[in-house]
Amino acid sequence: MLDVREHRQVLSALRETRGRALGDHRREIDEQRRNWRRARGARPAVHRVVLERERQEMQELRRQHRRSLAQNRWLVALADRLQERLRSAR
């Protein structure tokens, strides 16, 4: 059987071990919370980046559409001229 001094030493060591484990656990939880807050805080910025990229893509699509419309108008005008020449040549 343990005497009182040995018993206290064993209990002290046990408490110290549990205390260290609890401290490590709390640090891990705090780190996860910090990471989560950081990620949650970053979401609006990421969302803005995605929206900005989509806006730029839409602008580029609009430019391409305008170029296509201008080209189509030019092709229609050319087709009309060719039709007129064809009619006058007959």
Any overview of this molecule?
This protein starts with a helix and ends with a helix. It is built from one helix and no strands. The chain is mainly alpha-helical and 90 residues long.
Notable characteristics:
single chain; 90 residues; mainly alpha; 1 helix; rod-shaped
In short:
By secondary structure, the chain is mainly α. It has one helix spanning 4-89.
What's the number of helices? 1
Rg from alpha-carbon coordinates: 38 Å
Number of strands: 0
Helix percentage range: over 70%
Q: Low-confidence parts lasting 5 or more residues at pLDDT below 50? A: none
How confident is the prediction overall: mean pLDDT? 87
Element-by-element helix/strand order: H
Architecture blueprint of SSEs:
Elements: H1 4-89
